[in-house]
Amino acid sequence: MEYKRTFQSIIALHQEELPFMLQERECQLPIQNGRIVTVTGIRRCGKSSLLGLAVNKLLQAGVPNKNILFVGFDDERLIDLKAEHLDGILQSYREMYPTINLKDVYMFFDEIQLVEGWELFVLRVYKNYCKNIFITGSTAKMLSEEMASALRGWPDDYREYTLSFQEYLSFKSIRANKYTESGAAVMANAFRAYCKEGGFPQVVLTEGKAEKVKMLQSYFNTMLFRDMMEHYHISSPSEVVRYFLKRVMNNITKPTSVNNIYNELKSQGLKVSKDSLYLWLDYACNIFLFHRVPRYTRSLVKERSIPAKYYVADTGLCNAVLLSQSEDEGKALENIVYLMLERTIGVDGRVFYFSENSECDFVVQHGDNISELIQVCWELNAQNMEREVSGLRAAAEVTHCQKCKIITFNQTDTLSYGDITIEVVPVWMY
User: Fold this and answer.
1) What single DSSP character describes residue 304?
2) What is the pLDDT of residue 415?
3) Residues 14-73: pLDDT tens digits?
4) Cβ-based neighbour number of residue 275 at 10 Å
């Protein structure tokens, strides 16, 4: 068997590492639900750690080490692995532990989307041998297309993100009472640092600004070359794709016009079709680099035709890629607020932006109802008060939603305008 020794080595090495030394995350996976558990999210956000934490919970529940089958498909020894080789994992494990029934094994497949055709193997294993299967992948396509068609509704889906601010505090061992003056100061300083370095776990745990920036730039390059250009077979020069992604990054908080970027590239003599740019934007969303926020409208046709806003998966990544262009704290704050909404909104929730005569940053919808209107600004003052308030009032008039907030860096207040009450809250208390 071509990969037998490799599979056995990977399985044995992971078993020797148990329990994994990992820090807890807010998201926790079920360990006994009889469904295929899937975890998606941007590269390096901590998906593998979620699997590791699930393994630790199993060990605490009395599951023996030898009943844990853990394979990471980003191992360079598996770079040419094909779907027809995957059955070798089961054969290799059976040879290692001939007396253990596969139904008593917990199988963890990390970054399995790297193997084309993997879903049929997982489906066969689930139907015939083992109900305890955990999977991670770094593309949205893994769930939307491959999983949906092949696994027919069996997966229990989870999404992981880079660290939330609360997780960031935990990773940094920062403890403070946000309701005291001194504690609030600690929280505010920590949030400034969070805006700059972001929430990739390994970056947060790394010392030194230069080292953090280097690591983040390495993440971006891997996403550019491996996740986008190689995976989607993009033939255009890498510098064109890089320029496009940076251009979208630099435009966060504003609607992104692909047509404008196309004209910019054309004026520089860089040949790429407009259709390709639209595809690249979809690909970037598929790998979770960007998150799309459409404009609020009652017309589905208009929603699809009006330029959307795109928020980046991590402000630290954005800062490291754009460098001197990335000092806008207001942009970072708005991006972070969006990510807060994204991770907590639930399966029936959607986020829009509002833009008519005035603008409102976020319209939060649950089911058919608008549940909240949110403006974001670093500091609310006399110069921007009218703009922020008028945006909320305009959105409230159209959506009939009366729950309004202005999220700031460090301000607390309550504003009343007719029948609308606006709560002003610091982001680290939201």
Assistant:
1) H
2) 94
3) 999 999 999 999 999 999 888 899 999 999 999 999 999 999 999 999 999 999 999 999
4) 10
- Please count the other Cβ atoms lying within 10 Å of the Cβ belonging to residue 209: 10
| DSSP string of 237-265, one letter each residue | -HHHHHHHHHHHHTTTTSB--HHHHHHHH
Contacts of 132 (CB under 8 A, 6+ apart): 105, 106, 107
Q: Amino acid letter at 382? A: A
Distance from C-alpha of 353 to C-alpha of 293, rounded to nearest angstrom: 7
Domain boundaries, the chain: 4-159, 163-298+311-327, 345-430
- List average pLDDT for each run of 10 residues in the chain, which is 430 residues long: 91 96 95 89 96 97 97 94 96 98 98 89 94 89 57 75 97 92 92 96 96 98 95 94 96 94 93 95 96 87 79 97 77 97 92 95 96 97 95 96 96 90 91
Helix and strand numbers (H, E) in the chain are 17, 13
Question: Who contacts 313 (Cβ-Cβ below 8 Å, separation ≥6)?
Answer: 42, 45, 161, 162, 288, 289, 290, 291, 339
> Using alpha carbons only, what angle is made at residue 404 by residues 398 and 405, rounded to the nearest 5 degrees?
140
- Alpha-carbon gap, residue 134 to 288, rounded angstroms: 20
Distance CA 391, CA 379 (A): 16
Q: What is the DSSP letter of 175?
A: -
Q: What is residue 356's predicted lDDT score, i.e. its pLDDT?
A: 92
Q: Kindly state the tokens that stand for 368.
A: 């058919």
Non-local (6+) Cβ contacts of 351 within 8 A are 293, 338, 341, 342, 345, 362, 363, 364, 365
Phi-psi sector, 19: left (phi>0), alpha (psi -120 to 50), beta: beta
Q: CA-CA distance, 229 to 233, in Å (whole number)?
A: 5
For residues 318 and 326, the answer to whether their CB atoms sit within 8 Å is yes
* DSSP, res 163: P
Neighbouring CB atoms inside 10 A of 153's CB total 7
Short-list 104, 18, 94, 12, CA closest to 57: 18
The rounded distance, in Å, linking the Cα atoms of 224 and 220 is 6
Question: Counting beta carbons within 10 angstroms of the beta carbon of residue 332, is it exposed (0 to 12), middle (13 to 18) or buried (19 or more)?
Answer: buried
- Thinking of the domain 4-159, which architecture would CATH place it in? 3-Layer(aba) Sandwich (3.40)
